[in-house]
Design a protein that fits this description.
- This protein is mostly beta strands.
- 4% of the residues lie in helices and 45% in strands.
- It contains 1 helix and 10 strands; from the N terminus they run E-E-E-H-E-E-E-E-E-E-E.
- The strands form 2 sheets. Strands 2-10-9-4-5-6 form a 6-stranded mixed beta sheet, with no helix packed on it. The chain has a 4-stranded antiparallel beta sheet with strand order 1-3-8-7, with no helix packed on it.
- It starts with a strand and ends with a strand.
- The model has no long low-confidence stretch (mean pLDDT 95).
Length: 114
């Protein structure tokens, strides 16, 4: 399995929290800077957050302060937790490296609605 495998999406109420997980191939992603992206309906995919191999995070302004990206290289996992969700956060969420390799997973759908 080369493509990342994202999980943890679903229906979340406004103001709620999402916790996403991503399993990556160590052979291809190794110690790269990893990232979470999302594509909202009718929009292009956007970069949300990155985390270096040293664990240094960086966030897009629109999620700064309410998103936390983390990684567990021993488990080849990348995580995203985001709170205070609103309808603008409805999207398919993907993980990949930053810049991305040409291996995209299916993503995980997050729908924010009451």
């Amino acid at each position: 399995q080369v493509e990342p495998v994202e999980s943890g999406g679903g229906l979340v109420q406004p103001g709620g929290t999402l916790r996403l997980s991503c399993e990556v191939s160590r052979d291809f992603f190794g110690m790269l800077t990893m990232a979470w992206y999302r594509r909202a309906p009718g929009m292009q995919r956007e970069l949300l957050a990155t985390i270096t191999d040293a664990g240094t995070p960086n966030y897009k302004d629109s999620v700064k302060g309410r998103a936390t990206i983390s990684r567990d290289d021993a488990k080849s996992m990348v995580y995203l937790e985001m709170n205070s969700l609103n309808s603008d956060d409805t999207a398919i969420y993907y993980c990949n490296s930053s810049p991305p390799l040409n291996y995209w997973g299916q993503g995980t759908q997050v729908t924010v609605a009451s």
